[in-house]
Specification:
Elements: H1 2-14, H2 18-41, H3 45-48, H4 51-72, H5 84-109, H6 114-154, E1 156-161, H7 165-174, E2 180-187, E3 196-197, E4 200-204, H8 208-218, E5 222-225, H9 228-233, H10 238-244, E6 248-251, E7 268-269, H11 272-276, H12 285-292, E8 296-300, H13 305-315, E9 321-326, H14 329-342, E10 348-352, H15 358-368, E11 372-375, H16 382-387, H17 389-409, E12 414-420, H18 429-449, E13 458-464, E14 466-468, H19 474-483, E15 488-490, E16 496-497, E17 499-501, H20 502-515, E18 520-524, E19 530-531, H21 532-542, E20 553-555, E21 575-577, E22 583-586, H22 593-608, H23 612-622
Parallel strand pairs: 1-2, 1-5, 2-4, 5-6, 8-9, 8-11, 9-10, 11-12, 12-13, 13-18, 14-17, 15-20
Antiparallel strand pairs: 3-4, 6-7, 16-19, 18-22, 21-22
Helix pairs in contact: 1-6, 2-4, 2-6, 4-5, 5-6, 12-20, 13-20, 15-17, 17-18, 17-22, 18-22, 18-23, 19-21, 22-23
Amino acid sequence: MAGIAAKIVRKMSDFVDSRVIFVVDCLLSVMSSVLALLALGFVRESLYQSGLFALIWLPSALISTVIALLVFKGHKLIIRHISLRDLLCFVKEAALKEVLMTAVLLIAYRTMYNSLLIALAADFMFTLFLFVFVRIVMVAVYQLYQTKRREDKMTRRVLVYGVSDKSTAAVTRLQQSTHYKIIGFLTKKPQPSDLLLSNLPVFSYDSSEHLAHIIREYGIDAILFTREADARLERDGLIKECLTYQVSPLIAPSINEISSGDLHYSVRNLKIEDLLGRDEITISMDAVIENFRGKVVMVTGAAGSIGSELCRQLAGFGVKKLVLFDNAETPMHHIRLELEEKFPELKFVPVIGDVRQVQRLDFAFREHHPQVVFHAAAYKHVPLMEENPCEAMLVNVFGTHNVADKCIEYGVEKMVMISTDKAVNPTNVMGCTKRIAEIYVQSLGLAVERGELKGKTIFVTTRFGNVLGSNGSVIPRFREQIEKGGPVTVTHPDITRFFMTIPEACRLVMEAATFSTGTQIFVFDMGESVKIDDLARRMISLAGLRVGVDIQIEYTGLRPGEKLYEEVLSNIENTTATTHDRIFVAKVREYDYSKALESIREMEKLSEQVDIPAMVVCMKRFVPEFISKNSVFEQYDRKG
């Protein structure tokens, strides 16, 4: 009833002609006169209950009301905006009504009896009361309606995708939510029209038009996916349709996202990372945990995207001590606070240091004696390293050289180097420096295995492509550009890249480190490549915006050293299989350690002298597959 009354009030305030309000006020005024007549009839029956008096009283009340309303125009006031000052208008209307009625009664009775004064006073009070009371009620109901309307706008009407156990569990958790109202379930599989699940209807659709009808008919604001795998399967189907009809795709939280039973804080809009990921990788976690339990583990580049995730995962493996080595103060502070909060029992040591500083590295190894070292410290941004090639050499090669040598010197059991797909047939300085670092680590490990050098360290290298959401990567950059209103900048309409989530990459690194028994370079199955232009367009759509209307895409051209297509890491020609279906061993040329060390020392010396031309020529001679692309260093390919 309140909802109906509120709608009437809204219509009266916004859409109904003031003449209708005029009629309503006339009726209220006459009703007041009737009430006054009836009330006083019990006191002085002889006068007020006579038919003649009523015939004079009621018509005079109506005529007087009409005149009063036309004079003071209270019916033209907007009900929802009435203030205390406006109430004076109704006092004037009621007073003028009584003055006019007094004149009529004086003409009819030629004198003003005390009883008539009482009748007029009662009529004034009833009239003023009804005028004011009805409007107060209307304002109150209207405000209640507006409050409910705002709450309805904040509450999203949702269909849950699928009819799995996880779908019904999500509905159960969301039943008390003030943010989401579950309307039913949605599936492509044909279902009986009267099927109910958790007392909610199950809607099935077989075409875009049918889906559009369901969305319009039930006012659907969002579709909730309870599994990332379902969202990925529907990224070119249902999700594309959602974006077309301006329906938000949502994703339910995983178990570790749910906190304090308050689910609505975890249900979130679908992000591009959810669509680019793949099914959960199955690895033998028991073997991985056992491999690191009770050991001192050191991570270089511990505050970076990959390094920090390695630290998070290692923190849950029961390691004896975790040594975090990085030169970035603020990111190191952040990862320290995170580990202290999430793993209060973990013994860990943050060490501020640079892998180029041999003395600082020696201190960390001498002080903490790590048994396993993950080497993730590196410069990774292609254009920056193309502009600063000597720094790329000093960090990526000289830094790796230092870490590997300290592993031999202090008897580390295993060193795991994090490399990149850009090391394969490199077209830029960054990729080439990572390939040179791979060569040094591999040649050192093989020399130890052959007994040419004293030591026991096993050297493992892992290669993978771009990781989703890493610092400075394309997805955070696009997201920032979209938030600013664009444009979104894409280097080339045909450029493609392989992507992997950071946790997925780190799990594969752990697995490779666990079952490796010798010097090997492992590469990961990166799945299908993603067209960056499509990625940008999908991110704009997921933000509820339109490409070319709300957000523009600009093509800026390939950057120095950038490839149009990255190499496929795990094909039959360049890898051999392992016991894990996502991990392969790269087939690479083996280098003699002494000759590799001689060339690397020469390049390190040239980089320290900042002799860029000589250093780049030396790099191309040492790695003949290094052919520069879109770079000033193309001139040295003819000399190399």
